[in-house]
Amino acid sequence: MTADTSKSASADTPEAAGAQAQSADSHPPQARPAPARRWATIGTTALTLLPLALLGAAFWIGRLVRPGGDDWCFLPVVRDEGASGMIAKFFLHDNGRIANALLVIAYGAFGVAGHQWFALVSGVLMLGILWALIASVLKRAGLTAPRGLALLVGAMTAVIFFLATPNPYKAFYWPANSVSHTVSPVLACAALIPLLRARTGRGRALALGVAYLAGIFIGTLSEETSVVAFTLLAAVLLISRWALPGPGRTHTRIWCVVAFAGVAVGTAILYLSPGARTRRERFGADSASMFGPEALTTALRAFAHILGTIFTTWQYAGAIAVGVLLGLLVRGGGPQGKDAPEGSLRRRPFLPVVVGFLAFLVSGYLCIVVAHPAFGASVTTASRIWGDFLLLYVLLLVGVGALLGRALRTVRWGIRAATAVAAGAVCAGVCAGLAVPLFQLERKMDVRAQNWDRQDRWLREQAARGAQVLPYTPVSVSNMLEPFGDHGKRLWPGQCVATYYHLKKITQSTRLP
After folding, report:
1. Which of 160, 290, 325, 423 could form a disulfide with 321 if both were Cys (CB 3.0 to 4.6 A apart)?
2. pLDDT value, residue 488
3. Residues 6 or more apart from 183 whose CB is under 8 A from it?
4. What integer pLDDT is reported at residue 36 of this predicted model?
5. Residue 347: what pLDDT?
6. d(Cα 279, Cα 74) in Å, to the nearest integer?
7. Cα–chain-centroid distance for residue 447?
């Protein structure tokens, strides 16, 4: 403790402080006292159980999901026309999103069961990607961490990303939305993992191939995720001269260019598709109207309102807290690879964070510009479409927390320990704070599932007996669209429901059968 204090006091210049921090990080982990290492591992493992338990509960609740909204129109097409019919529907008529159609086929082919399993399958996939991403970043940086720390960071990131939004049902449980705005940004992150893991020429070639193909997939999956990807890739290229180490700079730049090209190809395929053209005509979203002064000003006001909601959502503090734990507990892993972050990046660690937040603001605003023609004034409340840029926000908060944790490494051990305990308490509080509305949502989903199943059985029975016109009672949850919504004024998707049950027409009813 005395030695640490004297070193801190002697750091009269930023260069000296940076050198001391680098020297401290280079100490092998076995130099730390064994009890401290053991307690760090125990504490990390215990804390990890909280977000994992919450995620497990969220996955289990997914069994209560039933089709609604767009699902009514997707399911009959998948059932009657197969994969080719679904792809044609999207590419030729709806929106041009070919990759979106493929994901709809993946769960829609199983009917109602596909919706019930969607939260589990997609949630586990996204958790695994975030876990692998954090572990890859640590390995690339030449850092070691207590066992389970990467999983803790990945799990907390997933919990906050899935459940901290105003409407987690639409963001996480509703497949038709989740594949476009929740799964898509996580899949984009997955393309980074081969780059972070690459050590040989063959590995770098694989990373480039993955980047290009993933870019095309993302470009044909979500316009908003593509906007975020374009902005981030351009930002990395701009700051690579100052923020990236020499040997790794060229490889990263090439990767960014290839990924940018892939997203551009995918976006071009989507934009030029007949379906996208039809969608633009339906909403009057030509380039002149979308990027006109009035439209840009309206989108800016809407984005400011959205930022007010995001910045006042206290659960996002959990991302900073888990980042602080990450910065406090990681240690240098011995000799670093030639591509490990060093030099200017160590001297100016806040540069990537500042640029990242600027990229978040720019890309978030552009996402609202793109989405506004379709959503209009409701874009300020349609939180389900915010996920494309919210994942970037959560990861940036983790990065800020990690930098704060690293800055605290030079203070006394007691202060570091107290900070770690406080950060763990915040993580636990966030998990508890997100659990309460989740279980409230579970009760509402359970009621809807029972009512939906009851009406579903009755409609099938009546259709089997030859009925052609049957009454239908809207059964909704979390503001999901249903036929005869808005006091009976909104007929959509009534015809899709009729087609799903092999009927000619459904009529409005206020009582369940």
Report:
1. 423
2. 72
3. 103, 122, 125, 126
4. 61
5. 56
6. 17
7. 28
